[in-house]
Structure formats: structure tokens, C-alpha cells
Amino acid sequence: MSELNVRPHRASVDAGTLRAYEEVAHGQVDLYVHFLYRAVRGWVKEGGRVSFIVPMGVLDGTYSGPLRKVLGEFRLLEIVDMEALRKKTFRGIKRPTVIFVLENRPGSDDDDVAMTTLSMGCYDAETDTIDFTKADRSTVMRGQLSQSVYIPAGVVAPWMADAAEEDTAAILTKVSATDACILGRMAQAPRLGSIVKVVYKRKGQREVGTAQANAVEQIPAGGDQLEWEPYVMLAYGIKLGSARAVVDSGWPIYKGQNVFPAGPSGDAMGYWDPERSVVDSLRLYAYRHLFDFSKLYAVRQISQLPTACPVAQNTAFQNTVHMVQFAEDFPLNLYLMSRIPQWFAVKVLRTSIIEDLTTTWFKRGLLLLPIPANRSVEDIAALRSAGERVITRDKDLANAHRHVERLIQDSPKRPLFELFAEDNPVVAGADLTGALSGTVVTAVYERGDHIVSDYWFFSITVPNAPLRKYLAYMLDRLVDEGDVVTFDVATLGALQIPANLETVAAAIDQMHATDPARAFQEALMELDRVVARLFGMSEDDMNYITSAMVNDGFLKQLRPSFEHRGLRIQPYADHSQGDRYA
After folding, report:
1. Are strands 316-317 and 251-254 parallel, antiparallel or unpaired?
2. On the chain, which terminus has fewer CB atoms closer than 10 Å, C or N?
3. What confidence tens digit (pLDDT) does each residue in 220-242 have?
4. Secondary structure (3-state) at 148
5. pTM for this entry
6. In angstroms, rounded to a whole number, what is the distance separating the alpha carbons of residues 381 and 375?
7. Phi, psi (deg, nearest 5) at residue 372
8. Separation between Cα atoms, residue 442 and residue 436, nearest integer Å
9. Which of 164, 145, 144 is nearest to 154 (CA)?
10. How far apart are CA 302 and CA 271, in angstroms?
11. Which of 359, 358, 296 is nearest to 332 (CA)?
12. In 3-state terms, what secondary structure has residue 128?
């Protein structure tokens, strides 16, 4: 019997305990797996019910797969998804949590499951409580909550070896009955794996160190077929390992957090040279002699939404990126800006979910992304044209923000509290007491003399127009950073107010008048229309998806990686940190 590792304490487990939990004790598991197993197997009488509050990983993690198989024997009554509440559920706990309720009766795919979704609108800052009466609720058949329903079956291809469904499929927590119908239709589409380039390598070969892979486009004529095996060209970037991997010249090398749709943003972390750099593993770069850079993309491994960028000639990425080499022309960076594949990915393919709504996008999930069946030269040209228009409008919006922020940066500034202390006319009539401690703000608007948030949980009075415009702008930018944002009086009072307040307010007015944000949204909507057309999707389905991405309590918190959000909002790691060579 293999040794069992137990998280978080990695305690040693004696042989007797291993035997008692053998059904679920495989590899590295969390202690709660054993607790849940004992509860459903031994503590709940027939017809009895049991409820757990556990990390979301129990429903999607590989380590909890054997437990899900056991839970499948019981009737699932309800799932309460609390991820959108973020850190409001348990202080200091980074892992998102769910509640699920089981009944000790035989379960069936035809069972109705109550789906309850809690979002920030359910949180009461004054009482620090969660109001379940404000939750979104729906009823879904249990079978529609299995990831396996939306995964292709019977496909025989090399890429399916990395995407094959296990008998312990993830249980999805963000699927409504309407979602399930649209997801079912999208699930009929081809998958990204079907267009990833397949080459052939010598059997038993591993990508270790600096050696280039012994791989070919096609098995040599007359060669022994048994000596070769297919290799799907989707793999991590270079695993650097140490400072010896980065040299003073060569191919610039980037991390995943540099990946934006238009291309890498920010400074490279250094250079990689095939001859001089000493690395742990080249991963896909061991196959660089087979690269076609015009069809090569880098995909962030960790992000809220899947994000890719094209890879320029002789450019490297390290292993916080998945490298994807396509066999055909498909602008992945532009396609992933559309809310249609984003929606499917969030509903079906998220796994290893960590704090701040962030997902680890593994190879399997990327291979399983649906792509349109319609990919003629004309179709791809239309997709490219619409996607490039989004990038142009994104740059216009980014430049508008840069102008405003440059004016702010170049001006002397004072804390807002100082203006109150001296009774400065700028703050005459202003009242910040509507900023309650702990109130979570997800959007900010000007309403007359007020600045308010969604649901009006946050409301402050600022009669001075330039100050109100400036504060609304700054608060909106802070909200857009994507973390849990709370604006109490102390936070507002510490905001720095520029001396050129009227000039800044005029620049904000000018930005609003030209409305680059609206032009960006229109371009994004046109991209969605093109993608929907290529899928053969109805207008109703498209409108449902795009509306959900804007209005759903969870989905609207997800932040795509666009330039107008910038490196200020989605910074790449400080390369002086210890993870530089990870």
C-alpha cells in the first residue's frame, strides 16, 4: 500500500487508519476527506441528512476524486456556493468554501438539487452577517452538475490522453438549469486539443535539462512505428531552477503575469540562451526546432479568466505559462477575449480554485476549451478583425487613463482629511459617514451630489463637482483592481487629493465625453457576435451569456486581462522575489 500524505499537517498515518480509509485515502489528501467519509459511511442513519462546510476542492480536486465517487452513492440535496463572498466567510481563510447537504438514500442523476449562490449583495456589513434570503436560487438535475456531461466522449486522438475523463468527475457549483441547456449545446463543438500540433518523439524520452528533444514532424519513412509515440505540443514553459538559467543576452524570457492579449507587457525577467543557460527542464522549448511562431501562444497558468498572448520569434516564457503550438491558424489570444469561451471555461473547467476568484488552468482544461467548428479562412479573418479592434479600443482606453493618471502623478497632493481639518472650501458640505466599515464595493457611480455603490450600501455626499469626479474616478479604479474592496471613512480620508484638482476633473470629463469605455464595450460585443456566429449560436444564447458576465453576482467580479487595467492592476511578480526562478 502506498504511503499517504495528509494536509495541512502532513501527519503520519498508521497502517490501521490507512486500511479504515482505504476507499478514499490515496496520495495526498486533506484531513476533511476522512471526516466526510466517516460521516457518510458510518454516522448518518438511513434517511438521515448531513451537511458540511468544506473547501471547494472537495468538488473538483483530484485528491478528493475517490471521495466524490463515494458521495455519488448518496442523494445530493443542496449545494451552497460561497465563493463570490470571498474573504467574508471565514477571516484569514484563502480557500473558497461550499456547503453541501446529503441524504442517506440512493442518489440518482435525475435527482433535483437546490443550487444556492451567495454573492456580495447577501453580505450585511453592519451586522457582519450573510443573508441567505438574498441568495440566487435554482434547481438543477444532479446529472447536469457533473463535468463529464460537458466533456466529449468517444473521441480517439492523442490529445485525449491528457483530457480523458476519470470516473470521479468534478461536481460543478455554478450551473443553473438554463446554463446547463446552453452548455450542452456548446459541448457539441470541437475542442482546442483537436487543433494542437502533434509531433512524434522517441518512446521513454523525458524533457529534462537542456537537451533538445529527439522529435520529428512525421515518423521517418521505414522507421519502426513502435519506437515513436505522439507528443501533443501543449506544455509548460521553461523551468529555470536557478540564477544560472538567466543570462545577459539571448531570448527575452517572461512570466505568466506578463501575458496580455496584445503581447507580453512589462519587462522581461532576463534572457535565456540555449547554449549558455542552465535550466531544470526546457519543457515545450525542448521542441523548439518544431516551432511555428506564427501559430505559437502563451497562456497564463493562474488567472481569473483564461488569457493568452502570441509568442514572437525567439521569445521565451517560463513555467507559469502553458505554451500551445497549433497545427492551424487560430488567434487564441483574440478568441479568449470573447465572453463566450470565458463563460464556458468558468462554468465547466475551473479547478484548483484559490483566493480572489483565481483558477489554475491546467493542461486538461485548456485542451477541453470548446472552439467553433466554423474556422474557414474567412471565418478566422473575421475573428482576427473583431479581436484586433478590441485590442485597439483597449489601448485607446488605456491611453485615456494614462493621461489622467499622469496629471495626478505630477501634482503635489494632500490627504483628504487635511482638507477637512482646515475647512477647505473644496470639502464644504461633504459627508463621508455613509462609508460603513466592512461594506464591500463592487461598482461606483456618481448620482447627483453623491457617490454610491451597487445596492447603495456605500453612499457619500460630495457637493464639490471636481472633488466628486476625482473621488469617483479613483474609487472606480480601486474597485477595478479586483480584490475585495471596502471603503471606510479612514480609507477615504487617506486618499491623496491633487493640487490641480480642477485640471484633473476636466481631463476626467474629457475622457467621459469621448467615452473610450463605451467604444471598447461595443468592440467587445462585436467580437462576441462573431464568435457566436462561428459557433452557430442563437442570439438568445449569446445575449444570455454576455448579460450573465456583466450582471451575475459572481461572474461580474472576474477581471479579464486587458491593457486598460494595466500592470498597475495586474502586476507581474517582482523578479527580486524568491520565486524568480520557479
Report:
1. parallel
2. N
3. 888 888 889 999 999 999 999 98
4. helix
5. 0.88
6. 9
7. -65, 145
8. 14
9. 164
10. 22
11. 296
12. coil
The grid coordinates listed for 421 are: 481639518
Q: Rounded distance, CA 328 to CA 307, Å?
A: 19
Nearest CA to 370 among 406, 403, 330? 330
CA distance 303 to 279: 25
Residue ranges in the chain whose pLDDT is less than 50: 1-6, 8-11, 567-582
The C-alpha atoms of residue 65 and residue 67 are separated, in whole angstroms, by 5
Written as one letter, the residue type at 281 is S
Give me the pLDDT at residue 458, please. Answer: 83
Taking the C-alpha atoms of residue 321 and residue 582, their distance in angstroms, rounded to an integer, is 11
> Given this model, what pLDDT does residue 166 score?
60
Beta strand 321-325 with 459-461 is: unpaired
- What the block records as the C-alpha cell of 310 is 502570441
C-alpha 237/C-alpha 241 separation (Å) is 12
Task: Note the pLDDT of residue 1.
Answer: 37
Rounded to 5°, the CA angle 308-311-312 comes to 150
**Cell triple for residue 106?**
440512493
The dihedral sign for the CA sequence 302, 306, 309, 310: positive
Q: What is the pLDDT of residues 74-117, one digit of tens each?
A: 999 999 999 988 878 887 777 888 999 999 999 999 999 999 99
Report the candidate in 326, 333, 270, 349 with the shortest Cα–Cα distance to residue 299: 333
CA angle 174, 49, 137 (to 5 degrees): 30
- Cα separation, 234 vs 323, in Å, equals 6
Whether residue 96 has a cis bond before it, omega within 30° of 0? no
Please name which of 551, 542, 540 lies closest in space to residue 524, comparing C-alpha atoms: 542
Neighbours of 105 (CB within 10 A): 15
- Between the alpha carbon of residue 303 and those of residues 43, 60, 73, 362, 528, the distances in Å are 40, 17, 34, 11, 21
Give CA 142 to chain center in angstroms: 25
Non-local (6+) Cβ contacts of 515 within 8 A are none
The three cell numbers locating residue 560:
479579464
